[in-house]
C-alpha cells in the first residue's frame, strides 16, 4: 500500500470550527514533504511564513508546482459519509443519516472503509484527514485497519468557541441542506464532541501531536497568519 504519510486534523473544537474551510486551503497551498522525517508546509503568501524551528520548515509556494499533483489530499470523513448516504443504492444510507442528524458517531468500520477507499483511489501518499477520529472506538478501529501503514505527522486543532461555532453552522444551515445544521442537532453534536471527542484530543496531546490553531478569526485574512502561529506554538 502506498500510504506512507498522513497529516491529520482533529475533529473540531465544536462543529463549525472551520475544519473543512481551513483544510481546503492547506490542501491547496501546501506541497509534499521533501523529507520523510519532517515536513514542509508551503504557503501562497511567504510573508506569512518564517522558520518555525527544526521540526518544521516553510518555503515559498511555487506556482509552477501543481497543488493537485503534490499537495495533501483533503479527505473529510463527514463529507465521505454524506456522499455514501446520498447514493441511491447504498445499504448504509439510512443508518448514516440517522447518526448525522443525531450527532452520534457512525460505526468505525464504515468510516474507515470510506477513508481507505478514498485514499487508495487518490493514488497519493499525503493526506489531510478532516474530522476523524471522533471517539476512542474510531482510534482503535483506525489503528487496527491502517495503523501500521500510516505515519501521523500531526493533529491540527482548530480552536474556536462554542458560540461562534454554533452561529456559523446555523448561518450555513440556511442554505447548506445539511440535516444537522439546526439547533436540535447542534446540541447533540456538541454533547458528542464534549463526551467522546475531547478525550481523543487529550490522547493525541499526550503524544505531542496536537498543533493549536486559532480558528475564530476571519477566514481569508488570517489563514496564513494563524496557521503559522499554530505551528509555531507547537514546536
Ligand atoms: N466558517 C469557517 N471558518 C470561518 C471563519 N474563520 N470565519 C467565519 N466563518 C467561517 O465551517 C462551518 C461554517 O463556518 C461554514 O459556513 C464556513 O464558511 C464558516 P466548516 O469549515 O464547514 O467547519 P467544520 O469544522 O468543517 O464544520 P462541520 O459542520 O463540517 O463539522 P462537524 O465536525 O460537525 O461535521 P462533519 O461533517 O465532520 O461530521 C458530521 C457528522 O458526521 C458528525 O456529527 C457525525 O454524525 C458523522 N461523522 C462520524 O460519525 N464519523 C466521522 O469520522 C466524521 C463524521
Ligand atoms: Mg466539515
From TrEMBL:
Residues 1-16 form the U-box domain. This is Mitochondrial inner membrane protease subunit. It comes from Adineta ricciae (Rotifer). The lineage of its organism: Eukaryota, Metazoa, Spiralia, Gnathifera, Rotifera.
Amino acid at each position: 500500500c502506498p500510504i506512507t504519510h498522513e497529516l491529520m486534523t482533529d475533529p473540531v473544537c465544536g462543529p463549525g470550527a472551520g475544519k473543512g474551510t481551513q483544510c481546503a486551503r492547506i490542501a491547496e497551498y501546501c506541497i509534499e514533504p521533501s523529507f520523510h522525517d519532517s515536513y514542509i508546509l508551503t504557503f501562497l503568501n511567504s510573508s506569512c511564513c518564517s522558520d518555525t524551528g527544526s521540526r518544521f520548515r516553510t518555503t515559498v509556494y511555487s506556482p509552477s508546482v501543481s497543488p493537485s499533483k503534490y499537495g495533501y489530499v483533503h479527505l473529510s470523513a463527514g463529507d465521505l459519509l454524506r456522499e455514501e448516504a446520498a447514493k441511491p443504492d447504498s445499504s448504509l444510507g439510512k443508518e448514516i443519516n440517522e447518526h448525522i442528524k443525531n450527532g452520534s458517531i457512525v460505526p468505525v468500520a464504515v468510516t474507515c472503509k470510506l477513508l481507505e477507499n478514498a485514499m487508495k483511489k487518490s493514488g497519493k501518499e499525503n493526506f489531510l484527514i478532516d474530522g476523524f477520529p471522533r471517539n476512542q472506538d474510531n482510534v482503535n478501529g483506525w489503528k487496527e485497519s491502517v495503523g501500521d501503514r500510516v505515519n501521523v505527522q500531526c493533529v491540527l486543532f482548530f480552536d474556536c468557541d462554542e458560540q461562534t461555532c454554533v452561529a456559523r453552522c446555523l448561518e450555513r444551515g440556511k442554505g447548506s441542506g445539511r440535516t444537522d445544521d439546526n439547533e436540535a442537532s447542534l446540541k447533540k453534536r456538541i454533547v458528542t464532541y464534549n463526551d467522546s471527542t475531547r478525550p481523543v484530543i487529550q490522547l493525541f496531546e499526550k503524544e505531542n501531536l496536537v498543533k493549536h490553531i486559532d480558528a475564530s478569526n476571519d477566514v481569508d485574512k488570517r489563514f496564513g497568519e494563524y496557521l503559522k502561529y499554530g505551528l509555531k506554538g507547537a514546536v
